[in-house]
Amino acid sequence: MGNGYAGKILKIDLSRKDEISTDPLDMKFAKKFLGGKGFGAKLLYDLLPPKTDPYSPKNPIMYVTGPLTGTLAPCIRYCLVTKSPLTNTFNDTYAGGDFGQELKYAGYDVVIISGKAKKPVYLQIFDDDIQIKDAQHLWGLNTYEIYDVLKSEVNEKTAKVSCIGPAGENLVKFALVDCDLHRQAGRGGAGAVMGSKNLKAVVVRGTNGISVADYDRLEKEVQKISHDMGITDKFFAPKLQAGGTPAIVDFSNEEAVLPYKNFQDQTSDIAENLNDKGQRKSFWLREYGCFACPLHCSKIGMIKKGPYKGTVCDTVEYENVGLLGTNCAVGNVDALAYSQNLCDRLGLDAITTGNIVGFTMECFEKGIITKKDLGGLDLSFGNWKNMMELINMIAYRKGIGNILAEGVMRAAKKIGKGTENFAIHIKGLESPAWAPRGTPGVGLALMTADRGGCHQRSNPVGLEVFGLAWPGGYPTERVSIKGKPDLVIWEQHHYAALYSLLMCEIFSHAGITNESYASLFSAVTGWDATYSSLLSEYGERIWNITRMFNWREGFQREHDTVPPRFKEPLPSGPAKGHKFTDEDINKMLDEYYSKRGWDEQGKPTKEKLIELGLDSMASD
Ligand code: SF4
Fold first, then answer.
1. Does ligand 1 have an atom closer than 6 angstroms to the CB of 298?
2. What pLDDT score was predicted for residue 399?
3. pTM of the predicted model, to two decimals?
4. Alpha carbon distance 232, 38 (integer Å)
5. Alpha-carbon distance values, 155 to 126, 149, 317, 404, 487 (Å)
6. Which overall architecture, per CATH, does domain 244-430 show?
7. What pLDDT does residue 232 have?
8. Strand bridging mode 20-24 / 298-302
C-alpha cells in the first residue's frame, strides 16, 4: 500500500558535476509538512543561511511536488521554491501543465538544485538517469524556441520541459520559469535564480507509477468532484469553463477593483474590450487544460488581424488583462494578447511587467522620464506599439530597460523625483490586478502576504464585496475593517494548505468542496484528515515558517503596509473616496498579529512556534 509520495529527494550541485545524490523522503517530515509549499518552506529555512544573496550558488532552486501529484486527483500543479531576488523574501511560484506529474513519475518528490555551472547547462532527468548537459547552443533562445530543439536532442517527444528565456539569462529580477509553452511559474524571479546558476532548462521523463493508500476511495472522491461541478450553478464552474479567468473582468470593473493607469483609478471603459467575450471574438480557437483537469479553463487562439496577425497565443489571464491591459490603458485586445505572448517568450512575469510599464507611462505623463530617456519612444498611456519595445528593452536590459529590469521598487529609488509615491509594490513585489481601495481585507492580505504583494495567499474580494461568510466565519461589510483580520487569517491558512497539496486555486472556485480536499488527501496518503485539520495542522504551521524566514531576512511590521497610492482617496466606483489610513492599517495589524500569537512587531512568539511543533525555530 502506498501513500502518494515517490519517496525520494534528488540533490544536484551544479558547481560539481559529480555531486548528484538522492535521499529517501523522511515520512515524519512528509507527515509534518505535507508537500509543495510546506516542503519548500521548511527545506529553504533549513538549507539557506540568513541574508544570503539570492544569486549566491548557495540559494537553492527547488522543484517540489506533493502527495496528490500524478494520482487521479484533479488539477495538481508543482511549485518552484527559492529566495526571491526581487524581494529577498521566501518565494514559492506555481505552474500547471504536466511537468510536475512527470517529475513524480521519474521518482522524485523534490529536486534541490544548488551551486552554479561554469557555463550554460540543462538538466536531464529520465528516471534514475540524471545528466547535466551542455546548453551553450540553447542560450539566447526564447522559451518557445527551446522546446522542439531540446525534445529532439534528447530524442524523447513525450519529455516535459521547464526553461528560462532571455530575461532569466539576463538576471531580470522578475524573470519567470516557463513550463511546456503554456504554463508559467511567474512571480518573484525564480527564472533569474535559474539564470544565475547558468541553468537554462530541466527536461524530465518518468516511467514509474504512484501507488496510493485507498484507490477505491480516491476514485469515488474524484467522481463526486465531477458530479459537484456538474450539478451546481452557485459556484463558477460553467462561467470559468466557458470564459476562463477573463470572465472575472466585468465583476472586477463594476466593483472598481481593476487597476487603471498605474492604479490611479480602479475602473475603466476599455475593460469590456478585454474580457472573455472580447477575447473570444478576436482570437480564441479552442479550449485546453492542465493534467487531469475537468474544467479546462484555458483557451488557445491566434491573432487574426493587424501587426501581430498569425501569432498563436493563449487566453490573456485576468491578471494580465488588469496589468498589461487596463493598467497601461491598452484597450486593443490583439495588442494585449501579443504583449502577454511576448512576456512569456522572453521569460518575464507579465504581472510585474504590466506594473513596470504602467509606472513608466506615469513617469512619462508627469515628464519625469522623457522620450530621450526612452531612446525616442513616446510612452503615453495606451501606446501599445511602444510598450512592446519597452518590454524587449527590459528583457535584454537595454537603455532604461536596465533600470526597469530591477523591479519597480528599485527603479523608483534610482529615478527618484517622487516616483516612489506611485511605485505600486509591497515588500518589492508589484501588486496583482486586485486594487485594494474599497476592500480593506484585500489590503491586509497584500500587506501580510509572505512573498510581498500577492493575491494568491489570500484574496477575499468576493467575500468582502458580497458580504459573505467564510467557512466557520461571519459576514463583514465591504469598506469596514471589522472582521478582516479573521477573514484573512482563515484564507491564508486555506491557501497554505491547498498550495501544499498543490491544488489549482482556479479550480477551487469551480465547485469542489473543502471536505473533498481532505478526502483526496486521506485517500491518497492513508492519513486521517478533515478540512479543519488541514488548516490547523498544516496551514497555520506553514504560514508561520514563511513568516520566520522573512523575519530572519529583516522583514517586520514596518514592511507590512500598502504603497502611498492606496492612501489617496479612490476617485470613482461603488467605494469612491475610500483610502487606507495609518490608523486603519495599525488597527488591522494589531488585531491580526495578536490573533496569530505574534508579538507587536509581527514575530511569531516562542509559545506559538512550540505549539505548532516548530521548536527548532523558537530560539531564532
Ligand atoms: S482550472 Fe485551469 S489553470 Fe487550473 S488546473 Fe484546470 S486548466 Fe489548469
1. yes
2. 98
3. 0.97
4. 32
5. 12, 10, 33, 39, 51
6. Orthogonal Bundle (1.10)
7. 57
8. unpaired
Q: Considering only CA atoms, which residue is closest to atom 1 of ligand 1?
A: 507
User: Does the CB atom of residue 504 touch ligand 1 within 6 A?
Assistant: yes
Other C-beta atoms within 10 Å of 55: how many?
18
CB atoms within 10 A of CB 385: 11
* Ligand 1 near 534 CB (within 6 A): no
Pairing status of strand 61-64 against strand 110-114: antiparallel
CB atoms within 10 A of CB 604: 24
Q: Is the minimum distance from the CB of 446 to ligand 1 under 6 angstroms?
A: no
In CATH terms, 8-205 corresponds, of 3.60.9.10, 2.40.30.10, 2.60.120.260, 3.30.9.10, to 3.60.9.10
CA-nearest residue, atom 8 of ligand 1: 290
pLDDT score at 507: 84
pLDDT of residue 16: 86
Residues 57, 196: Cα–Cα separation, whole Å:
8
Integer-rounded Cα radius of gyration of the chain: 23
Domain 440-561+581-617: which topology? 1.10.599
Neighbouring C-beta atoms of residue 556, cutoff 10 Å: 14
Residues 6+ apart with CB under 8 A from 154: 124, 126, 203, 205
Contact partners, residue 444, CB within 8 Å, separation at least 6: 481, 484, 485, 488, 588, 589, 592
Among all chains, which residue has been given the C-alpha cell 474580494?
Answer: 461
Report how far residue 369's alpha carbon sits from residue 392's, in angstroms, rounded to the nearest whole number: 18
Amino acid of residue 2: G
CA diameter of the chain = 68
pLDDT at 231: 60
The residues spanned by each domain of the chain are 8-205, 244-430, 440-561+581-617
Question: How far is residue 205's CA from residue 290's CA, in Å, rounded to a whole number?
Answer: 17
Q: Is 512 in the pocket of ligand 1 (CB under 6 A)?
A: no
Of 260, 244, 383, 267, nearest in space to 317 by CA: 244
The low-confidence residues of the chain, meaning pLDDT below 50, are none
- For the chain, what's the residue count? 620
pLDDT digits (tens, 9 = 90+) for 581-603: 999 999 999 999 999 999 999 99
Ligand 1 centroid to Cα of residue 511, in Å, is 13
Question: 96 CB less than 6 Å from ligand 1?
Answer: yes
75 ligand 1 Cβ < 6 A: yes
pLDDT in tens, 296-308: 889 999 999 999 9
Cα-to-chain-centroid distance, residue 446: 13
- Tell me how far apart the alpha carbons of residues 431 and 192 are, in angstroms, rounded to a whole number: 19
CA of 112 to the centre of ligand 1 (A): 26
